[in-house]
Design a protein that fits this description.
By secondary structure, this protein is α+β, with helices and mostly antiparallel strands. It has a domain of 43 residues. It is built from one helix and six strands; from the N terminus they run αββββββ. The longest helix has 27 residues.
C-alpha cells in the first residue's frame, strides 16, 4: 500500500503578473499603514479648532474643571492638569462647545 504523492509542476507562464499584483497590493497596504500611523501619532497631536456656538470664534477647547488644555477624545476630553475626564468648553467664553 504505497501512498502516491501528487507532484504539481511549477507554473511557468503568468508568474510575473502574479508577482506584480502581489507587489502592488503590498505597496498599497504599506502606504495605508504609514498614513494611519501619521494620522494617529503626528496629526493627532496638533490642537483642533472648534467653532463656539455662543461667541462665534474658532477656539481651542479647555477643560471645564480647571480651564486647562485637554487631550481630546470623541465628545469629551482628558484634562491635562487633573488627568480626569471632562467636558470641552470654549477658551474665550467658558461655555460648552
Amino acid at each position: 500500500m504505497a501512498v502516491e504523492v501528487l507532484r504539481f509542476p511549477f507554473q511557468t507562464e503568468g508568474s510575473l503578473q502574479c508577482w506584480t499584483v502581489g507587489l502592488i497590493i503590498g505597496v498599497l497596504v504599506l502606504a495605508l499603514g504609514i498614513l494611519m500611523a501619521y494620522q494617529r501619532y503626528i496629526a493627532g497631536k496638533r490642537p483642533v479648532q472648534h467653532l463656539c456656538d455662543y461667541c462665534g470664534h474658532m477656539v481651542s477647547v479647555v477643560s471645564d474643571c480647571h480651564h486647562a488644555p485637554v487631550r481630546e477624545r470623541f465628545l469629551h476630553g482628558i484634562c491635562l492638569e487633573c488627568k480626569k475626564e471632562c467636558r470641552l468648553v470654549c477658551s474665550k467664553c467658558k461655555r460648552p462647545v
